């Protein structure tokens, strides 16, 4: 059997099989060529041509002249007589012997004066059996005549050979829309794979494949449709969250009735949050759902808290979707989900397969890629391979819907559109009113029941996800594999729409990260500290809720956006309170000079300029160094260090109004309107801005989609590009230099919208920051900022969850240009060998790189379904980092983390500690310690979970060092279940870990009992 499934190409597969049995092509290695064992040329071949149709006796008297195999004869309607002298080798005794004769004319073989066989190539008669079995005494030499009518040009025979069984040619005449024809073709293709013409012992394997195919009786290969009752309820969209609670109740009460009346009816239900709402608002209904879950009629699927967006949430947030979801399903329904369920989400991160698998899920269902505007996705059932190589089985219901109604038309469409005919013979059919709820009806159930076994239609079963996926897994040997992200070629505006929601999401992901880390450290260091587990669960669930696929995407109504804004505000304020409490506990009892603690929540040492609060609300800048995941005392005003050996920042304004900022690492030059005319890496003198171009160029596009206003930005918006030009003389020096230098300017974007920006360069910092404030009052406009780089590369790199991936910078194929607007997390990079330019951001997600131009998407102005979206004031920061070498070696990843996780200056209740302290460090820059939290399984206990990932795309060994009192360390999965392999060796507070590219690993650390 072939090791890997074949490519999915009808024509090449068909022609491959044809060539394998071709008498014309590749006969040196194909089956036809080896059908005949030994061969030898005819002893002598001669011919004569005549326009007459002579009798045999007359013809054989004529003057025959020598002829060669391959000669041509004619003209048309003449006759060519051949005399064929044969000498059969001695060795062929006991074998079947043929004369093989291939000519374009119609031939007749004469033997001993009698016609014995017709020979026509078109009629596939190219062989005359001289004897079934050559006897010892049979004559070895004989003379035959072949009379050939020249109905065209002639070839000539190739000698006589020994025959083997003929291969089946079963694929001809079958169409491409037929399940059976694909099965036939793939069977034939497999036969070619297993059949070695030189090794007859392989033939029975091929014959067995053919027998299996022919052995299927009428109807056995009939497609099976697994009809699953479903009700897609958007957790908030054109209605607020509160209304969804009632939608769930209305829909599921109906479903309960249907389940009662139809014991064979199965309903699949996703989104733990909706079930949690029903549990608290309608406990009776929840109890009924639990009953039907026991009977197997109510099947929870998905495993996540909500059906989240598949692009924007961070890697850790995606993990939490499963962690919160699966634990809820386990607690309420006795088991976890085995299918990831995201039918309506706008694209799927390449890290999802790894996250799914580590959360106990190997199956995935969606249908959204059928919405692709440009390219039709090539599979409905396939293996999806993620960034790290993890594979899951993915299924897209071929009917391209999650809200079918059970019509015959939909059933037929499901079969006809299946792009994996001949590879799988099962597909899902999701029926029930969706989006706003409603769900299946008795009419739909009745319709589908009638189709269980109807002539001319596929078999329809009321089925379960388990039965569907088991059937798919049972015949997965021929499935193809898709590697990398599942990019939706539509809804690309959702990376940008509703900037405040995006900002809230990014900030709250940061706050929860910091709260968990500091609370974990406080737990480890203080016997009195209580880890705020319940509060953190609340806050996480709130954040996860807003990552629903119509909220964080910005495709919701104003009411929902307002609720989301409140949720983020809630997380911010409660999070900050928790942060202060943890910081206070962390340094309690440590004597120090001043009540201020500088905290670094990232796992590496940082030296940065920080604004320290001073009495009276003032601030002063200080250069501070803080170890990884730890703290340092705040420098006192008298102890503010001299900058040496760092070069201070120089700020120079020229007479033409341009400003140069220089910190000895990079030199930034802004023209009098604030655009970037030069960005130089000082050490190498290397210029990062393309020759003759300017960076930090704001551009405005017309942004009128075809239909889905908040969702879609169309390719043609690129044709309306208008640079926003400022006025000379608006650029001014802000901070004078020293610790920090800056310049600022105002820019009128349009009569209604304006922005102001401060361009900031700090001592020792490898990137320049652009603090931006925009007052935005537009309709159907798209604002971006562009940086043409002096870098050439066919690919750019974009950060995604726990890693990064490349996308093309050109529009060669339709798959390339369909990605004219893409998403990224905290950074993107365009690098050639030895040099590159990275663009970092603190709350943006939309991006693109075309040619050498890096572009960050800033604000949109759609008017539906929320006419007020994005109107008003916005504040955000992006940064630019030129670098030598690769972005990995240059430290682009930690720089982007730094921009997103500022050092914290937290008030301590008493004196702050006098010495710096670090909880964790990792020996390899390729490995990021992303998360430190308390283990879910020990809410009162002293167990921590650490999440690390390999961020460079490399195989690497590293050491994790900790100063915490660790008693035991063991690997665990994302659901925090211990690795059965047992504890890891822990020596001198160090653990050795091994990573493959983009691998995510979790560690369970059991801490020693608290000091009393
Ligand atoms: Zn939806």
Automatic annotation (TrEMBL):
It is an enzyme of class 3 (hydrolase). Pfam families: Alpha-mann_mid, Ams1-like_1st, Glyco_hydro38C2, Glyco_hydro_38C, Glyco_hydro_38N. GO terms for molecular function: alpha-mannosidase activity; carbohydrate binding; metal ion binding. Coiled coil: none annotated. SUPFAM superfamilies: Families 57/38 glycoside transferase middle domain, Galactose mutarotase-like, Glycoside hydrolase/deacetylase. Belongs to the glycosyl hydrolase 38 family. GO terms for biological process: mannose metabolic process; oligosaccharide catabolic process. This is alpha-mannosidase. Residues 489-568 form the Glycoside hydrolase family 38 central domain. The keyword Metal-binding applies. It catalyses: Hydrolysis of terminal, non-reducing alpha-D-mannose residues in alpha-D-mannosides. Its EC number is 3.2.1.24. Keywords: Glycosidase, Hydrolase, Metal-binding.
């Amino acid at each position: 059997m072939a090791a890997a499934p074949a490519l999915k190409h009808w024509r090449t597969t068909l022609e491959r099989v044809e060539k394998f049995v071709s008498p014309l092509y590749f006969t040196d290695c194909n089956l036809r060529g080896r059908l005949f064992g030994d061969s030898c040329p005819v002893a002598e071949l001669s011919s004569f041509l005549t326009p007459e149709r002579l009798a045999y006796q007359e013809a054989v008297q004529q003057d025959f002249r020598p002829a060669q195999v391959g000669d041509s004869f004619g003209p048309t309607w003449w006759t060519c007589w051949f005399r064929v002298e044969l000498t059969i080798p001695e060795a062929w005794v006991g074998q079947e012997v043929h004369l093989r004769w291939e000519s374009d004319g119609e031939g007749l073989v004469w033997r001993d004066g009698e016609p014995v066989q017709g020979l026509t190539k078109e009629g596939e008669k190219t062989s005359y059996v001289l004897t079934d079995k050559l006897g010892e005494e049979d004559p070895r030499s004989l003379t035959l005549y072949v009379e050939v009518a020249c109905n065209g040009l002639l070839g000539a025979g190739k000698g006589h050979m020994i025959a083997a069984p003929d291969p089946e040619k079963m694929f001809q005449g079958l169409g491409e829309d037929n399940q059976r024809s694909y099965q036939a073709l793939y069977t034939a293709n497999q036969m070619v794979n297993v059949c070695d013409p030189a090794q007859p012992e392989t033939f029975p394997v091929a014959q067995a494949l053919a027998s299996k195919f022919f052995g299927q009786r009428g109807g056995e290969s009939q497609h099976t449709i697994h009809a699953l009752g479903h009700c897609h309820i958007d957790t908030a969209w054109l209605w607020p969250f509160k209304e969804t609670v009632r939608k769930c109740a209305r829909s599921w009460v109906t479903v309960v009735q249907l389940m009662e009346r139809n014991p064979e009816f199965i309903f699949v239900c996703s989104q733990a949050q909706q079930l949690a709402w029903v549990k608290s608002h309608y406990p009776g209904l929840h109890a009924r759902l639990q009953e039907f879950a026991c009977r197997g009629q109510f099947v929870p699927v998905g495993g996540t808290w909500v059906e989240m967006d598949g692009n924007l949430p961070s890697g850790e947030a995606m993990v939490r979707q499963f962690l919160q979801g699966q634990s809820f399903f386990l607690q309420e329904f006795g088991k976890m989900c085995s299918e990831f369920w995201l039918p309506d989400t706008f694209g799927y991160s390449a890290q999802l397969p790894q996250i799914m698998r580590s959360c106990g899920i190997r199956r995935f269902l969606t249908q959204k890629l059928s919405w692709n505007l440009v390219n039709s996705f090539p599979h409905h059932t396939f293996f999806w391979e993620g960034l790290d190589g993890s594979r899951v089985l993915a299924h897209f219901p071929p009917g391209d819907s999650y809200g079918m109604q059970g019509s015959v038309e939909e059933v037929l469409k499901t079969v006809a559109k299946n792009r994996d005919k001949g590879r799988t013979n099962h597909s899902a059919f999701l029926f029930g009113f969706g989006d706003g709820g409603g769900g299946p009806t008795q009419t739909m159930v009745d319709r589908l029941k009638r189709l269980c076994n109807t002539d001319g239609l596929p078999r329809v079963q009321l089925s379960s996800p388990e039965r569907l996926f088991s059937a798919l897994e049972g015949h997965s040997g021929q499935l193809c594999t898709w590697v990398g992200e599942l990019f939706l070629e539509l809804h690309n505006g959702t990376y940008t729409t509703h900037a405040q929601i995006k900002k809230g999401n990014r900030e709250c992901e940061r706050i929860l990260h910091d709260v968990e880390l500091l609370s974990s450290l406080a737990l480890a260091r203080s016997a009195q500290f209580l880890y705020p587990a319940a509060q953190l669960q609340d806050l996480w669930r709130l954040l996860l809720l807003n990552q629903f696929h119509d909220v964080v995407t910005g495709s919701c109504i104003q009411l929902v956006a307002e609720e989301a804004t409140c949720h983020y505000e809630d997380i911010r304020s409660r999070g900050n309170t928790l942060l202060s409490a943890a910081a206070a506990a962390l340094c309690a009892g440590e004597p120090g000079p001043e009540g201020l603690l500088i905290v670094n929540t990232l796992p590496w040492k940082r030296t940065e300029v920080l604004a320290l609060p001073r009495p009276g609300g003032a601030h002063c800048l200080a250069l501070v160094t803080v170890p990884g995941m730890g703290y340092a005392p705040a420098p006192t005003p008298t102890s503010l260090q001299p900058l040496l050996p760092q070069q201070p920042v120089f700020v120079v304004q020229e007479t033409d109004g341009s400003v140069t900022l220089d910190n000895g690492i990079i030199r930034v030059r802004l023209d009098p309107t604030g655009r970037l005319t030069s960005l130089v890496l000082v050490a190498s003198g290397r210029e990062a801005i393309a020759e003759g171009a300017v960076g930090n160029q704001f551009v405005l596009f017309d942004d009128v989609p075809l239909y889905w206003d908040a969702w879609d930005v169309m390719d043609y918006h690129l044709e309306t590009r208008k640079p926003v030009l400022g006025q000379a003389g608006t650029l001014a020096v802000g901070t004078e230099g020293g610790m920090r230098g800056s310049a600022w300017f105002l820019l009128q974007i349009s009569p209604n919208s304006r922005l102001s920006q401060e361009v900031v360069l700090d001592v020792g910092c490898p990137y320049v920051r652009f603090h931006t404030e925009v007052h935005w009052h537009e309709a159907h406009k798209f604002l971006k900022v562009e940086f043409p780089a002096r870098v050439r590369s066919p690919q750019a790199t974009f950060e995604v969850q726990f890693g990064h991936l490349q996308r093309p910078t050109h529009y060669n194929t339709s798959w390339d240009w369909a990605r004219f607007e893409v998403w990224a997390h905290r950074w993107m990079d365009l690098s050639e060998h030895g040099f590159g330019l990275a663009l970092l951001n603190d709350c943006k997600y939309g991006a693109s790189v075309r040619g050498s131009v890096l572009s960050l998407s800033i604000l949109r102005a759609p008017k539906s379904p929320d006419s007020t979206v994005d109107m008003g004031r916005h504040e955000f920061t992006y940064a630019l980092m030129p670098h030598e070498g690769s972005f990995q070696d240059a430290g682009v990843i930690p720089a982007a983390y730094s921009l997103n996780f500022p050092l914290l200056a937290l008030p301590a209740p008493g004196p702050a500690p006098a010495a710096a302290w670090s909880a964790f460090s990792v020996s390899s820059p390729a490995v990021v310690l992303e998360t430190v939290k308390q283990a879910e399984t020990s809410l009162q206990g002293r167990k921590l979970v650490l999440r690390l990932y390999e961020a460079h795309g490399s195989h690497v060994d590293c050491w994790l060092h900790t100063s915490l009192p660790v008693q035991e360390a063991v690997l665990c999965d994302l659901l925090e279940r211990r690795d059965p392999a047992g504890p890891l060796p822990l020596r001198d507070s160090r653990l050795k870990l091994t990573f493959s590219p983009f691998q995510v690993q979790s560690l369970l650390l059991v801490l020693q009992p608290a000091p009393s």
